[in-house]
Specification:
This protein is mostly helical and 154 residues long. The protein has one domain. The chain is built from 4 helices and no strands. Helix 3 runs antiparallel to helix 4. The two termini are 95 Å apart.
Length: 154
């Protein structure tokens, strides 16, 4: 196929015509073409260098922004951990106080209901349910009041 095209080009003498056309041009046309080619090469080189410098600026800016973001994230993490630790300590204190209070109230109630054992050989002691009920009711009222006061605290 190329042989056919080459034969056709030779037949039409296209190369000969192009060569004759180029030989007929004056020298200053070649000088202008060379200057234009040189300007094009300089422009493309400058464009490439500008893109490289611009990319370096953008990369530097992005690295700085990433560093700031990482620093802010570390600061936020530290603040969050400090807050979490404070909440954990407060909850531990509240849990300990609640446990102590419940144990104290259970002991009070157990002591309030406790009936002393009769001495050996004596009949069982009579239980005064009225005073027992009154002391138990007073104990419950005190516990409810303390619970309400504790709920009202921030």
């Amino acid at each position: 196929m190329f042989a056919t095209i080459g034969a056709w080009l030779a037949e039409k003498a296209i190369f000969g015509r192009i060569g004759a056309f180029l030989k007929a041009l004056p020298w200053w046309v070649y000088a202008i073409l060379a200057a234009l080619i040189l300007l094009l090469v300089v422009y493309l080189h400058g464009e490439k260098a500008g893109e490289t410098k611009g990319a370096a600026k953008i990369e530097k800016r992005d690295v700085a922004a990433d560093a700031r973001t990482v620093a802010e994230s570390k600061a936020d993490t530290t603040k969050a951990q400090t807050t979490t630790d404070a909440i954990g300590k407060r909850m531990a204190r509240v849990d300990a106080a609640t446990t102590d209070l419940v144990q104290a109230k259970l002991k009070e109630m157990t002591d309030a209901i406790a009936i002393p054992a009769p001495p050996a050989g004596d009949p069982p002691a009579r239980v005064d349910t009225r005073s027992l009920s009154a002391s138990f009711d007073a104990l419950v009222e005190r516990a409810n009041g303390q619970a309400d006061a504790a709920d009202a605290q921030p």
